[in-house]
């Protein structure tokens, strides 16, 4: 980043008034975008998948963001590992298939060959002094939380372990380790990644923008939620859930981008899960003994969000592909032994968050269009947008 730009950005960060949206530069500058990737994304935990996607040694998938690509693979010993997908010879992508099963990773350029643990086996015609042990694939950090895989491209990843153990007892009854992917979808939006993430971090927009969601979920209106919360907690207890909230975000987190959050909130009467008619969509997760008519917001690091119903989980991430292009990636998980067509129907399962994501794509797109105008001036945030402030807290600290 040019010195001038860096100084401009420092000034913007220093002068960012509390309780206001960020200025236009943060969403329109190529320099800021590149700095975001370097300083924020490369140093954050990113949820990339689930262990059920790579059950056997050699199974792998790629996770890409911005200009980065990470190979997530199960090695010969059964360990899940993550390697930067960059050859240590002259930098080619080592792996070019999105997913598959590999015995080794052989670079398509000059055939340097890496084993599943990332070690270089040898380079062709490199001479007697060549030491392959110096040229293994660069590792990415990895954490597995209840089967969900998180990676971080840098060595100083946010200190998330204490937060994860705090979440563990809350998550245990859902047995995420034994879910499977029912469906994955991607909703590309022509907007900066921060606008897409910020949109997810607040439900101020839910009432005006999401009629299907608002019919069944109380989150959009704190007043409506009030009277429903206590009866929900009784029902949640009865099916084996812990009801306390976990909120280690913003200034209460273990460090920038080490936020963890867990809160179960009520659906309206007649809704057991996030379905069109309120009826169950899939077999109960884990050890749950019934439906409580609730949904949990779980957040692990600012970039990874999950909505947990009694019978399915929906994961959301907002992956930057360029300055004003973001991929909204959504994954639906159901019980590992549930069979499509028998235990669940994919169209019914995905209906709510498909229609809701189409709404989100539209409102985020319009948001970026307005922010691009020379006349945009950041306005004050409402109390219902506190989630955005916790994101700014880590963002402004890390950039
Ligand atoms: Fe990979 Fe040359 S760049 S072997
Ligand atoms: Fe939304």
UniProtKB/TrEMBL annotation:
One Pfam family in the UniProt entry: Ring_hydroxyl_A
Enzyme Commission (EC) number: 1.14.12.13
Top-rank taxon, per record: Bacteria
Keyword annotations of the record: 2Fe-2S, Dioxygenase, Iron, Iron-sulfur, Metal-binding, NAD, Oxidoreductase
Cofactor requirements of the protein: Fe cation
Matches recorded under SUPFAM superfamilies: Bet v1-like, ISP domain
Domain Rieske as annotated: residue spans: 45-151
InterPro entries: ARHD_Rieske_2Fe_2S (IPR015881), Rieske_2Fe-2S (IPR017941), Rieske_2Fe-2S_sf (IPR036922), Ring_hydroxy_dOase_asu_C_dom (IPR015879), Rng_hydr_dOase-A (IPR001663)
Single GO MF descriptor: 2-halobenzoate 1,2-dioxygenase activity
Name recorded for this polypeptide: 2-halobenzoate 1,2-dioxygenase large subunit
């Amino acid at each position: 980043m040019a010195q001038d730009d860096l100084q401009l950005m420092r000034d913007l960060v220093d002068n960012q008034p509390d309780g206001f949206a960020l200025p236009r530069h943060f969403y329109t500058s190529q320099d800021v975008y590149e700095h975001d990737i370097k300083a924020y994304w490369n140093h954050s935990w990113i949820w990339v998948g689930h262990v059920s996607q790579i059950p056997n040694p050699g199974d792998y998938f790629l996770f890409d963001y911005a200009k980065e690509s990470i190979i997530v693979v199960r090695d010969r010993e059964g360990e899940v590992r993550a390697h930067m997908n960059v050859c240590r010879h002259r930098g080619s992508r080592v792996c070019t298939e999105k997913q598959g099963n590999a015995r080794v990773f052989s670079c398509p350029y000059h055939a340097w060959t890496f084993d599943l643990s990332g070690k270089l086996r040898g380079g062709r015609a490199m001479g007697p002094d060549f030491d392959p042990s110096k040229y293994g694939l660069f590792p990415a950090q990895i954490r597995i939380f209840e089967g969900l895989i998180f990676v971080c491209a840098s060595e100083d990843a946010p200190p998330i372990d204490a937060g994860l153990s705090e979440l563990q007892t809350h998550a245990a009854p859902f047995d995420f380790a034994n879910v499977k992917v029912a469906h994955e979808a991607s909703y590309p939006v022509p907007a900066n990644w921060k606008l897409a993430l910020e949109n997810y971090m607040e439900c101020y927009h839910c009432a005006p923008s999401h009629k299907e969601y608002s019919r069944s979920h109380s989150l959009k209106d704190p007043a409506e939620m009030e009277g429903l919360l206590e009866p929900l907690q009784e029902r949640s207890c009865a099916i084996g859930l812990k009801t306390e909230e976990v909120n280690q975000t913003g200034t209460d987190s273990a460090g920038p981008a080490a936020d963890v959050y867990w809160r179960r909130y009520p659906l309206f009467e007649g809704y057991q899960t996030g379905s069109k008619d309120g009826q169950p969509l899939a077999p109960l997760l884990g050890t749950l003994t019934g439906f409580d008519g609730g949904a949990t917001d779980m957040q692990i690091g600012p970039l990874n969000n999950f909505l947990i119903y009694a019978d399915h989980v929906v994961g959301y991430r907002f992956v930057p592909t360029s300055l004003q292009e973001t991929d909204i990636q959504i994954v639906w998980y159901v019980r590992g032994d549930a069979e499509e067509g028998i235990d669940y129907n994919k169209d019914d399962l995905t209906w709510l968050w498909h229609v809701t994501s189409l709404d989100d794509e539209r409102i985020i797109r319009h948001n970026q269009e307005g922010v691009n105008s020379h006349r945009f001036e950041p306005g004050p945030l409402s109390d219902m947008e506190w989630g955005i402030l916790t994101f700014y807290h880590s963002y402004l600290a890390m950039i």
